[in-house]
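Can't attach files on this board, so I'm pasting raw text. These are the components:
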Amino acid sequence: MSVVIIGGGQAGLQVADSLRGGGYMDNITIIADEPELPYQRPPLSKDYLAPGKKPTPLPLRGGSFFADKKIELRAGVAATSVDRSARTVHLADGAALPYEHLVFATGAANRVLACAGADLDGVHGLKTLHDAERLHAALTAARNVVVIGAGFIGLEFAAAARAHGCEVTVLEFAPRPMGRALSPAMGKWFTSAHAALGVRLRLNEGIDHFEAGPDGHVGAAVSTIGTSYAADLVVVGIGVIPNDILATAAGLATANGIVVDEALRTSDPAILAVGDCANFPSVHAGTRIRLESVQNATDQGRHAAQTILGKPAAYAELPWFWSTQGGFRLQIAGLSAPGDETVLNGDPETSRFSILCFRDGRLSAVESMNSPADHMAARKLLASSWGPAPEEAATPGFSLKTFARESLLGSTQ
Amino acid sequence: MPSITFTQPSGVTDVVTVQDGTSLMRAAVTNGVDGIVGECGGQAMCATCHVYVRPEFADVLPEVGDDEEEMLDCTTAERTDRSRLGCQILASADLDGLVVDVPADQV
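---
Top answer:
C-alpha cells for the assembled complex are below.
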C-alpha cells in the first residue's frame, strides 16, 4: 500500500498533506525534479523581484513537515517512466517505486519561443526559483527590458522592472492584455494602468526576432511590424504547456493535459492527476478545461486525496485567481467567457472597482480591482448560485458585499 | 530577534524566533507551524493565515490596512476584534514575546 506523487508543487504537496489529514497511514512519496525544498511560485514574479537584497524563497511547507508527517520527499530527481502493469514508477537515479495509487502533479512548462535569437544570452523565461534568482540579479543592472507576452507573468514582471527604474516594453500580438483571462473592459483598463506606470505596452505587435549586441548578448528585439526595441534583458511569458509526456508514454489519455474524470481519476483508475497538468470536466465552465492557478492546485489536491481515501465525489470548487502588478491588485472569481455581458460597479478612475460578468443572465465571474470585499462576496455568491441579475447589479449604489450578506442570509432561513 | 508564540486550539505552542521584517505567516510556514497556510504567498489575497492576537499586544501592532480589513471579513474561522492576517504583521523588536492563537480552520 502506498501513494506516489510525481510533482513537488502546490498540488502535489496538498495531496500528501490531505492524505495524512484524512488518516492515510501508509507510505507517501513525493518525487520533485527541482532540488530545493518545495517552494511557492506565485511570489517569484512579484515580491521576489522587488529591488533590494536577494530574497529568500517561501517554502510550501516547513522543512520539518516531511519528517513530522512521514512523507518521503525525493527532491532533485525526475520520474522517467511509469509501468502500469507492474504499478511501478521508475526514477532517473535508477530507483523503482511501487504504488497502489499514483498522482500526476507534474504542472506545466513554459512555452518556448521559436524565433531567431531566442537562445541569446539575456533572453529568459520565468518559472523556477532558479529563473527568479537570475532575473533578480539581472534587474539590478538592466536598463532596457523587453517582455514578450502581456499575460499575467509578463505584466507582473513588467511592473517589477519598472520598480527597478528600467525602461520597459511589452510586445503582445493580441489586441488586448491578458485576453485569455480577462473581460475586454478590464483588459482595456489595464492597458491604461500600465501606461500610467510607464510601461510601453505594444498591442497587435508580436516578436519577430532578437538581435545580438556587440558582446553577443541580446541587444534588440524586432517586432512583427519591423520596429526595433533596445533590449539588454528579455523575459518571455507566452503561456505554458502541460507536462503530460510521461502520462502519454504510460498510455493514459491526454489532450491538452492529462484527461481525468470528475473525481480526478485518469483513464487508469489507480492513477489521478491534479493541478496545472489535469484536464478536467468543469461545472463552472460547462466543458473540459485546464486551469493554471494556486486555487485549482490546492483544491484539486484536497479532492484527489478524498478519492484515494475511498470517498470519490464530483470536483466542483469555484475557480479564483489573483495578480498584483505595481499597486494594482486584481482578484478574479469564477470563469468569464467571450461574449459575457458586463456590469461595472465602482469608478475605474479610482482604481477601485469590479466588473461583474453575466452569461445568460446569471453571474459567471467577477473581476475586482483593489476591492477584496467584492471578490470575497463574489466567491460566496458564485459558489452558491445566488448571484444578482444584471439589471439589479446595474442599479446605482449596488454593493456586491451587501447583496451577498442579504441573499446568503436569506437562503439559510 | 523577536520571539513569537503560536498557540494551537489544542493548547500546543510553537515558539518561533523571527527575523526583523519577516511576516508572521512566513515565519509560521517556514517553521512548520500547523494551521497557518499562506496559500497566496503573503499578498493578503487568500485569508488563510488568519491569527488571533492576544489583547495585551493590540497596541503594538500596525494598523489594519484596507485590503486586510476586507479580507478579514471572509476568514473561515470567525472574525473577532483580535483577528489579523499573519502576512500583514512584520516582526520587530516591539513584537518580542507576542502570542497569537491559531484558529481551528483556515480553508
